[in-house]
Write a structure and sequence with these properties.
Number of helices: 6
Order of helices and strands: HHHHHH
Structural class: mainly alpha
Radius of gyration: 30 Å
Shape: elongated
Oligomer: single chain
Largest sheet: none
Number of strands: 0
Helix content: 55-70%
Strand content: under 5%
Length: 156
């Protein structure tokens, strides 16, 4: 197999002049920094609200309450002793699922505080980012919340 010839380049002095120290420090203006901070705050508020909506979207059908979960857990405890080993396995899994569901219900985010913050920032965020009313609706934001926020449907 023939060997490829290696490129040889010599280091020559650059023909470009050395960079001069700029007279004025290059930094962001305080207005630019404030605008970036506002954008981060608004993005965070929108993201938290949308995440809470997504997490709160329960399954279809009858909703579980902590009381109904407790009732089912006590029923499982009573059934466990007389169940076959296979039924005990299934009951154990159901108990674990119910306990996790109970914890999730008890630690649910306060949607009203997130909604209030969303309402205060949604209009400006949507205008700057080009987010439409329909896009918010498709993510589960209610029409009432969008109306309160001042995000309007596009006409045409």
């Amino acid at each position: 197999m023939p060997r490829a010839a290696a490129k040889t380049t010599s280091k020559r002095a650059s023909s470009r002049p050395a960079k001069k120290a700029s007279a004025k420090p290059r930094g962001m203006s305080s207005a630019h920094k404030a605008a970036l901070a506002q954008g981060r705050r608004e993005s965070r508020a929108i993201n938290k609200y949308l995440a809470a909506l997504k997490a709160g979207k329960g399954k279809r059908g009858r909703k579980r309450t902590p009381t109904s979960i407790e009732a089912r857990l006590s029923k499982i405890s009573r059934m466990f002793e007389t169940a076959t080993p296979m039924q005990q396995l299934e009951l154990t899994q159901e108990r674990m699922n119910l306990e996790a569901e109970k914890v999730r219900l008890e630690t649910r985010a306060d949607l009203s505080a997130l909604e209030k913050e969303f309402i205060s920032v949604a209009k400006g965020y949507a205008a700057r980012r080009g987010i439409s009313y329909t896009a918010f609706r498709s993510m589960g934001v209610s029409a009432d919340v969008l109306t309160k926020a001042g995000v309007r449907r596009a006409r045409g």
